[in-house]
Batch of 3 targets.
Target 1
Amino acid sequence: MAHGTAGTAGDGGSKALTLDDLPPPDTQRWVMRRKAQVVEGVRSGLLTIDEACARYTLSEEEFLSWQRLIEAHGPRALRTTRLQDYRRTDHRPDEADAKARHGLSPAPGTPG
């Protein structure tokens, strides 16, 4: 396969993904589709994580978070308005936890 091209997994490799299919290196506005394109470029072998991070001025942590979100929830998880929902940990301290840490009792009739 020529440098700068890679087969795509979704179509049996019949259409080669090229650098021209990826967002431009000077991309400032990262919408869901563009993030997914960059992740697909790395997955398909078109470029390495290091090359993608350098090309788009991304941290490795940011790229890997995109990749994890796609793997766990699909490309729609990359929507900026939904990121906080998908990034939540299994347990977030709530108001009752905060009050308990400070030795305060919950208000009467409230759980916790």
Target 2
Amino acid sequence: MQLDLQLGEAVQGSVVISERNLMLVFQVNCPGCLSRALPMLSKISEANEQLNCFALSTAFENFNLNNAKTTEALLKHGDLTLHSKRYFAQLGQQRLPYQFELPVIMDWFMPAQSASKLSESIIDVFDEERLSDVVKQNIKNHLAQRLVPMSQMGRTFLNNDFQGTPTWVYFDKNLTIIDSWFGHKDISWIQAVLDK
């Protein structure tokens, strides 16, 4: 299976796809991503010199909290958002308690005006003279409910039909997926996948 990798702007470092790559897909407003997945990616990277490890910051919800601005604030200043802030506050920490050093790239996002243009284009396909204004408005409303959220999602996340975050993808230089999984696995389980 091929990985549809749509990289946006680099927030920290840069990525060059190599023979063996491990990508962690995460959201800033994901306590599990910040408390377990990012530190685990760092440990895996330290233990596997020939493995290219990087993180892809994406969004499939809470678009105002999962974006380039909050990703940069997280990495540079340890700033946390809603759910992540609550989680770490329970541990007595007001900021991210570690420095994440690996490359972090933003997922690619459709420009905001594209969803609106797409909706209008779909309406234009219909024979407008045969549709009443009420029907046209209902179609527009339905499209707005479906397309606008989809347009705000990260394209790599959406195009690969990932389940959520954290999502891990182990792939080769041709973007062929060797293995992928959703959620948390023990580090020994991950190492066994990488050693195959």
Target 3
Amino acid sequence: MLKDQLRDFIDSVTERGHVCNDDVAMLQDEILVEGIASRLEAESLLALDRIVTAVEGWGTVLTRLVADFVIWKRAPRGVVSNDDALWLATLLEVSGPSPNAMSIAYAILDEAGHVDVALLDFIMRGRQQARLSQIAA
């Protein structure tokens, strides 16, 4: 279930089409002070990221929130299980490996004690796509 405050935040930002600095501050200082609590919350924020423009600080906050949830709030702590890696890689892949999606994957890779290969595969596909985009440009 999505918290009412988070649902209202997502509705408001979606309507405006942009995440501003005040939104970022409200999300981290008021709405998700304790971090993301469920997969649904993570999925909702990642969906929001795909449909709006945002200030630079948004990506940093989104990355920290998702990484903390996957690494420290899911069991076993400090390890990204196969199930979580598949779930997250699928979510991050939805619109292709965006800069925020890649940032989240790299943050998890840097901080977790063990990361399942599904997330590593996402990173490799993202790097390959970035190389191909540079070649085509």
